[in-house]
């Protein structure tokens, strides 16, 4: 049976990069590492999960693209937040929701500018809304009071505007109602999540919010802040015996990288995905940063990645991302040596 595979699966099964001996006529440089340092991912026919197609999760470019579209929420009043299906209907409301809801003001009590969304931003895959103080601000908590809503998309989370959601048969998990305080016009934004892995949390604490932001590593899409030196420093501070894939996927080290950015970056930098950090030279680390940055920025400029029959990214109006044609490794059915990947 033929399956699309990740970079790790392609290389390990079809003779791309090897920890031992290279295949004949390989275009890739020979890479030999001390075996005592290698962290190998043992994958066999017995323990590998089989999928008909890749189901990708939103990564940094897809999340940033959605946040760009959500800028239409800024300056509008949050009128309501309703749960329709999924975990927050079956297993109780999100953490902090009841306390947050108690700070909201009914429109009939105050039809003016309160409960206003001040900003919608992201760091890596983490999305957050920040609201004004509202009418119910606690004087006792003045120094640390900040209303924020935290969102992660999981594997299949996406926001849709009202016209698109009306055509969706599966229905949303939750939606928010907004109001333009100048015109009184109301609008709905829906959150859909087929696999229901996305998360939602509410906070009233500025410190709690700051701690969350600080817990995330530098955002690879933040070109001004996440420089090569910052990236190299994060690698140095991490355990050098750690596998490079695990390091890059750890959002507390570097944020915004997921499966396809990881696979494409390692392949283009010609770095073995089974290698530990100790096995990667400074020159290779610099090349890895360059390739990761190129992949993530180009994907963002193309409005993210949408894979046929398995890609999940759609904009709020239902359009697809355009990065698929740039892929060199992720989701390919042929190895870098043009050998079909068989399971």
From TrEMBL:
GO terms for cellular component: nucleus. Transmembrane segments: none annotated. InterPro entries: FPG_cat, FPG_N, H2TH_FPG, Ribosomal_uS13-like_H2TH. Keywords: DNA damage, DNA repair, DNA-binding, Glycosidase, Hydrolase, Lyase, Multifunctional enzyme. SMART domains: Fapy_DNA_glyco, H2TH. It catalyses: Hydrolysis of DNA containing ring-opened 7-methylguanine residues, releasing 2,6-diamino-4-hydroxy-5-(N-methyl)formamidopyrimidine. One of its GO terms (molecular function) is lyase activity. Residues 58-198 form the Formamidopyrimidine-DNA glycosylase catalytic domain. One of its GO terms (biological process) is base-excision repair. Belongs to the FPG family. PANTHER family: FORMAMIDOPYRIMIDINE-DNA GLYCOSYLASE (PTHR22993:SF9). This is Formamidopyrimidine-DNA glycosylase catalytic domain-containing protein. It comes from Thalassiosira oceanica (Marine diatom).
């Amino acid at each position: 049976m033929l399956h699309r595979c990740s970079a790790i699966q392609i290389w390990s099964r079809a003779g791309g990069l090897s920890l031992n001996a290279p295949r004949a006529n390989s275009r890739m440089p020979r890479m030999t590492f001390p075996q005592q340092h290698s962290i190998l991912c043992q994958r066999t026919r017995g323990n590998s999960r089989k999928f008909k197609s890749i189901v990708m999760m939103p990564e940094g470019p897809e999340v940033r693209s959605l946040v760009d579209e959500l800028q239409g929420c800024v300056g509008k009043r949050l009128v309501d937040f309703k749960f329709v299906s999924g975990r927050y209907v079956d297993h109780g409301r999100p953490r902090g929701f009841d306390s947050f809801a108690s700070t909201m003001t009914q429109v009939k009590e105050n039809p003016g500018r309160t409960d206003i969304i001040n900003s919608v931003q992201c760091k890596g895959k983490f999305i957050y809304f920040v609201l004004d103080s509202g009418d119910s601000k606690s004087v006792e908590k003045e120094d640390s009071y900040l209303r924020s809503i935290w969102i992660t998309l999981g594997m299949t989370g996406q926001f849709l505007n009202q016209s698109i959601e009306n055509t969706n048969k599966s229905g949303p998990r939750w939606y928010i109602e907004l109001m333009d305080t100048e015109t009184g016009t109301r609008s709905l934004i829906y959150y859909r999540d087929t696999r229901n892995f996305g998360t939602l949390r509410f906070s009233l604490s500025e410190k709690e919010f700051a701690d969350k932001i600080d817990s995330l590593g530098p955002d690879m899409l933040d070109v001004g802040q996440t420089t090569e030196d910052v990236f190299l420093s994060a690698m140095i501070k991490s355990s050098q015996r750690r596998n490079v894939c695990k390091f890059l996927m750890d959002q507390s080290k570097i944020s915004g990288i997921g499966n396809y950015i990881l696979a494409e970056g390692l392949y283009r930098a010609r770095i073995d995905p089974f290698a530990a950090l100790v096995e990667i030279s400074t020159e290779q680390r610099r090349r890895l940063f360059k390739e990761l940055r190129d992949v993530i920025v180009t994907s963002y400029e193309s409005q993210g990645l949408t894979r046929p029959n398995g890609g999940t990214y759609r904009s709020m109006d239902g359009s697809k991302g355009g990065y698929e044609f740039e892929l060199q490794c992720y989701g390919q059915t042929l190895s870098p040596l043009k050998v079909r990947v068989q399971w």
